[in-house]
Amino acid sequence: MIAEVRMKQAIAAMASYRYREDLNSWLKNYMKAFPAMGSRDRRELRALVYGAVRMARLFPEATVEQQIGMGQVFAAGPSSDFVQYARSRSGWDLPSLPEPGFDALQLCRHWAQEGLSFRADDWFPAQNRISSSINQNELMIGFLMPPRTWVRLRAGRENVVENEWREKAWLWGNSETTPNARWVESGRPLDSLNSFQSGFFEVQDLASQRTIRFMNPSSGESWWDACAGSGGKSLLLHDREPGVRLFATDERQSTLQQLHERFTRAGIRSYSRYCVDIDQRDPLEQAGSFPRQFDAVLADVPCSGSGTWSATPDWLSRFEQHRITEFAERQFRLVSNLLPYVREGGRLVYLSCSLYADENEQVVDRLCSTFGWQCLDQGYEQASLEGGDVLFGAVLSRR
C-alpha cells in the first residue's frame, strides 16, 4: 500500500531532521539520497514532513505517526486515502475525528479533549509581542493548513496563463479578495511554463500583492525601492503605474541580477539599479545616476520574517526571540538613513513581513517622534485564511 510506504519514508525523514537548519534546504538534500523517487513521490513526502512539523509544534507529545497523520487531516482532508488508511492502522493510533463540519480549531480542541497536549497559548514564539491588530485565531488556522503558491497575473494575460494550467491539468483557483491573484497547487514548476517565460505572471504571495494599497503611485513620480531584493515590490509598483520613474537598489549584486532578469522578462527596460548598502549614512553617495530626492521611497526592511512562518513552520522552533529587538533597532537605523532622500511633500512607504509590533508600529512611532514625521496610514495585510502571509505597511510623510 502506497500509504504504508509514505508513512515509513516520513518517519525516517522526521527521525533525521533536527530543526537546526532550514527545512526546505534540508529536505532537498535528504531526498538526493533517494534518486529513484519521482516528482510526485517527492511532493507527497514533502507534504507529509511539513504537516508533521506543524503538528509537532502544536502537539509535541504526540507520536511521530500521529503527527504525520494529523498533519494530513489538514493537508489532504479526513476522507483522503492516506488518512483513511491511517485510521485503519491501530499501530499508528491516529486520534479520532469529530462529526463532519468541524473547523480547524475545533479539531485541535477535540484532540486536546482526547488527551493530547495542545500548545494553544504558547505555540508561536514571543506570542505576547504579536501586534494586537493580528487575528490570532486566523493566524493559527493559516498555520494548520498547508500554504498556497500565489501568483499575480498581468492584466490582459489571464486567459493565456489559465489555459496553460488547464492543459497541464494543474489545480488552481481565484482569490476571494484580490482580482488578479491566483493560487496554484504547490510543487508545480511554474518557471517552466511559456507564460512565465513571456512575463505574463509573477510568483508573489497574496499579502505581498495587497501591499500596493500603501504605495498608491502616480505617473511621473520618482520611486526608490531601497531594499529591492529580486524586485517583487518594484514589479508590483510598475504594473500598477507604468509611468513611474523607478530606481532599485540592494546590497547584493547577485540579487540585483535576479531583479534584472525578472524586469527583462516582464518587458521593463526603463529603470535604474545600483548595488548599495543602506546601512551607510549616505547610501547613494556613489550612485551618480540617481536623484538626491525622490517623490517616494519604498523600504521593505529586513525583519524576523514571522509573517511568513506558516509556510516555513520550522522557524517557530529555530527563532531566537532576542533577535526581535535587534531587527527593530536595525530597521530604525536603516529608515533613518533613507528619510533625507524623500523630497518635501513626498512619502516613505515602510513594509515588513513581521507580526511583531516591535518591528512595525513601534518603529513607525519612534521614527515619527524622533524626526517629526507623521504616519498617514498603517495596517496589516493578513491573508492567513487564504493560505498566504501576513505583511505590515505604513506611509510616512513630513509634517
Characterise the protein shown here.
By secondary structure, this protein is α/β, with parallel strands linked by helices. The chain folds into three domains: 122 residues; 55 residues, Sun protein, domain 3 (Alpha-Beta Plaits, 2-Layer Sandwich); 193 residues, 3-Layer(aba) Sandwich (Rossmann fold), CATH 3.40.50.150. Helix content is 40%, strand content 17%. α4 runs antiparallel to α5 and α15 packs across α16. The longest helix has 20 residues. The model has no long low-confidence stretch (mean pLDDT 95).
Poorly predicted spans: none
Helical residues, percent: 40-55%
Instruction: Please tell me the CATH architecture of the largest domain by its name.
Output: 3-Layer(aba) Sandwich
Overall SS class: alpha/beta
How many domains would you count in the coordinates? 3
Count of individual helical segments: 16
Overall pLDDT: 95
CATH fold-level assignment of the largest domain: Rossmann fold
CATH class of the largest domain: Alpha Beta
Give a count of the beta strands, DSSP E runs of length 2 or more. Answer: 11
Order of helices and strands: HHHHHHHEHEEHEHHEHEHEEHHEHEE
| Percentage of residues in DSSP E strands | 15-25%
Main sheet specs: 7 strands, mixed
The CATH superfamily of the largest domain is known as Vaccinia Virus protein VP39
Spatial separation of the terminal alpha carbons: 68 Å
What is the topology, as strand order, of the major beta sheet? 7-6-5-8-9-11-10
Radius of gyration: 23 Å
Global morphology = globular
